[in-house]
Specification:
single chain; five-stranded mixed beta sheet; 5 helices
């Protein structure tokens, strides 16, 4: 039911600043609850400086958990996730955060790339096909974007989430 609540939002409901690394670990643990196979450890490459993000922590955790669950389901017999975090200059002198979530599956087919964010589209026999749709909506309400990186032949799937670091968000009235 929480997915529908996130889809109905057009703005950030609560605004707080929080460290990103614990949020990623919590999102991974949440995703693991819905993965029947025992996943390997989360590999997270965060660099030496802690990253502090502002936004709706619960919503961002949900978005990351949905992306990670998709990644875990990409290779159900031996699931693994590699997360890379980095910041870079964005537009207007603002910095942006990029979160890349890579799985060890076969990658996205051209058809799945086109339909990945369409509600109820799924390539699996579990779930409703709303996870990436909900993640996309949550990230958009945080003035960010989600993209699926077109895989090269034989490469695993990568989902890239970009979020502004310095811009203030407006709370929903």
């Amino acid at each position: 039911m929480s997915q529908m609540r996130f889809l109905a939002r057009d703005a950030v409901d609560s605004l707080e600043s929080f460290p990103l690394q614990p949020l990623i670990e919590e999102a991974y643990q949440e995703a693991c609850k819905y993965q029947p196979a025992k996943p390997g450890p989360l590999k997270c490459h965060a660099g030496s400086n802690p990253i502090v993000l502002s936004g709706d922590r619960a919503a961002l955790k949900h978005a990351l958990a949905e992306v990670m669950l998709n990644a875990l389901q990409a290779n159900p017999t031996n699931p693994a996730i590699d997360v890379r975090l980095h910041t870079e200059p964005g537009g207007n002198g603002l910095r942006k955060l990029e979160i890349e979530v890579q799985d060890n599956g076969a990658g996205f087919t051209p058809e799945a790339l086109k339909k990945a964010f369409v509600p109820f589209f799924t390539t699996r026999n579990v779930g409703l096909g709303l996870g990436l749709t909900v993640s996309h909506k949550i990230i958009e309400t945080h003035r960010g974007k989600v993209e699926i990186v077109s895989p090269k032949s034989g490469q695993a799937g990568v989902v890239r989430i970009s979020l502004p670091l310095d811009a203030s968000l407006t709370l929903q009235a």
